[in-house]
Amino acid sequence: MPYAPGIPRSLLLLGGTSEIGLATVRRLIVRGARTVWLAGRPSPALEAAAAGLRTLGAEVRTVAFDALDPGAHAEALGKVFAEGPVGLVLLAFGVPGDQARDEADPPAAARVAQTNYTGGVSAGLVCAAALQAQGHGALVVFSSVAAERARRADFLYGSGKAGLDAFTQGLGDAMQGTGVRVMVVRPGFVRPWTPARPGQPPRDRAQAPTALTMAATPGEVAVAVEAGLRRGAETVWVPGALRMLAAALRLLPRPLFRRLPI
Q1: Integer angstrom CA distances of residue 110 from 68, 97, 104
Q2: Which has more pLDDT, 42 or 198?
Q3: 3-class SS at 95?
Q4: Is 144 in a helix, a strand, or coil?
């Protein structure tokens, strides 16, 4: 397929093994992206992800990156931008944690929060500054519908995503007029839905809680990201109808909200 106008030629994926992130990168390669950086902890999974993208015709390189080491972010990501302009940064790392276990283990809960929020703030600021210095580019941050309202079932994860979501909105305002675009993406749960607890089999859409049945595949999220980039969106919901559901849930009194099967 020929190069599609509006699609960046070079990409940086923070969270190089993220299912949603890789689906988005694959779609953009098909649309004409040619240089891809995968940032993540060195592992066979990271190398396998890079190898898979190379089969699509892209030049793919990896860079060591740890969300839990903000002190190393500037150096690690600086290596990428030193190699040439980056048209798009996808911030896709995060961990669901285990709500029940982490509530009883504050250090573990803190690690979840540090990965999902503090790591995102650090990496987001480093990349935004680099994009601003080159005078152009876009930063896409994957948030979640869980950021909209804390739920008993996953408030540790949701609170981190809520912080990241608010940070992204503020960063977008700060980047106005600089040539840098910032977009936040809020998916519902993404199939296949794998519980946080090890040893449990994956569950499919039909087994998800009622309020989460507005599901999406990683491929559908990728389509929505591309569409959002093309129209210059600041916020993308996946699926789009999730916006109305989230608005309704925000208005529910807390006693009623607690009774919902979510």
Answers
A1: 11, 10, 11
A2: 42
A3: coil
A4: coil
Q: Does residue 117 have an active-site annotation? A: no
Q: What's the rounded Cα separation, in Å, for the pair 73 and 93?
A: 14
**For residue range 142-155, what is the model confidence (pLDDT) as tens digits?**
998 888 888 888 89
| pTM: predicted TM-score of the whole model, two decimal places | 0.87
> What distance in Å separates the CA atoms of residue 28 and residue 23, rounded to the nearest whole number?
9
Non-local (6+) Cβ contacts of 30 within 8 A are: 1, 56
Q: How many residues does the chain have?
A: 262
C-alpha closest to that of 215 among 233, 178, 242: 242
Place of tokens 């030193």: 82
Instruction: Give strand pairing partners of 140.
Output: 90, 183
- Which residues contact residue 177 at a Cβ distance below 8 angstroms, ignoring those fewer than 6 apart? none
Choose the catalytic residue: 37, 81, 93, 157: 157
pLDDT digits (tens, 9 = 90+) for 110-125: 999 999 999 999 999 9
Q: Which amino acid is at 252?
A: L
